Amino acid sequence: MIAVIGAGVSGLSCAWWLRRLGAESVRVYEAEARCGGKVKTVRHAGALVEAGPNTLLADDDLLAWLRELDLTPVLPPKDAQRRFVLRQGRYRLLPDGPRSLLLGDYFSAAAKWSLLRGVAGRHAPPPAGETLAAYVRRRFGAEWLDKAVDPFVGGVFAGDPEEMLLEEALPRLAAREREPGSLLAGIWRAARGGQLRRKRACTLQDGLESLPRRLARDVDVRLEQAVRALRRDAAGWLLYTDRGVTRASQVVLALPADAAAALLAHEAPELSAACRQVPYAPMAVVASVVPAEALPRALDGFGGLNPASEQVFALGHLMVGRLYPHCCPPGSALLTSFVGGRRQAGLAALDDAELLSRLNPELERHFGLQAAARQTVMRWPRAIPQATAALAEVRRALAPWPERGLHVCANWLDGVSLPDCLAKGKRLAERLAA
Ligand SMILES: Cc1cc2nc3c(=O)[nH]c(=O)nc-3n(C[C@H](O)[C@H](O)[C@H](O)COP(=O)(O)OP(=O)(O)OC[C@H]3O[C@@H](n4cnc5c(N)ncnc54)[C@H](O)[C@@H]3O)c2cc1C
Description:
Helix content: 25-40%
Strand content: 15-25%
Radius of gyration: 22 Å
Bound molecules: flavin-adenine dinucleotide
Strand order of the largest sheet: 8-7-16-17-18-15-19
């Protein structure tokens, strides 16, 4: 039997592909009463609200697979793709292509020049252990860090570019940087080799949680069966739950790093200690539903990112009603705000009343919020694992275990995004099935 521990998107993808590839006996153990982990869709004030991810960045293959599963991807209107970044208290449109980047005034002339030089010139490969911030400063200059990379890292990872590693956070870019010649030549080669695929943001008609629910239909998931301990003997692995002990030949750890650390303490203390060091960013997610006319200055696009240098309360806001109008009751707007992250961790722990009393003036200032919004606060004390130097130690300690039947398939190793989690589940399933 192959045991998968954790029914988030990573574990379910692995189990689903194992079944598709003909594995006879696969079982998923899940601590909670529901599948999906961080992917969670709720109803609030008549709106379809995502407590976790709002967007799946899908290429054509992924879109086709979703349709094969009878799910309905919903793409945002074209003009809703525009992204804004807060600069000196005002949202500015982020350039969305080479033309607007070079002709617009979002970046200074010096920053445009340093980008051209960085992309087209020859360069030395990045030193091992270089942080994202150090890389961007070295290759493109401080303005790029402040105006583009910092808000991007805050928006995607709720993270701090000063501690995230280039190699771990953006491995494809790191690989390209190690190739000889300019970055531009590497991008050109990748485009010609079909490695650069067009990706589009989407959600699903019934919310993103319909994906894990759909995957779970095809696999044997045991809900409310937390694995409490893992042991190993000459015949394989033993999983202890409140309902008894089960044997497995292979174990897939698809649960958060701290929960994996607890399970590994007895059999793999070194790996357990390494997993315990993986840092997480906490986040509070606030969904605000208001009559559309009560948000007169809503951003005309995807949403707004707030770089650390602006020192404002929220990490950013998503104009969900604009992106995915079907999520809102007619005549309403849905705005989702993100608070906390690695650099403002304490804010994610504020109680609801204080959190809203600090968020709402910001919504009023930036978007003209006029009426009392119907708001819900959703919390993730350990929202997003951070791609820091701690992962190098995890990789080292993990290396001998796959041949002893222990594998990791979770968002804290090799990519945090939903497509990354889905892809690593498929890759591991192919390896195990072979
Ligand atoms: C607020 C937020 C916004 C995000 N936005 C986006 C986005 O827009 N786009 C995107 O691509 N990604 C986004 N992400 C990231 C993405 O949602 C996650 O990385 C991904 O869903 C993680 O999946 P996972 O299966 O690896 O882990 P998890 O979802 O954490 O699943 C792990 C599962 O293991 C279970 N478990 C824990 N302990 C045990 C145990 N002892 N026994 C059995 N089961 C156990 C848990 O209950 C859980 O169900 C976001 C994440 C958050 C939190």
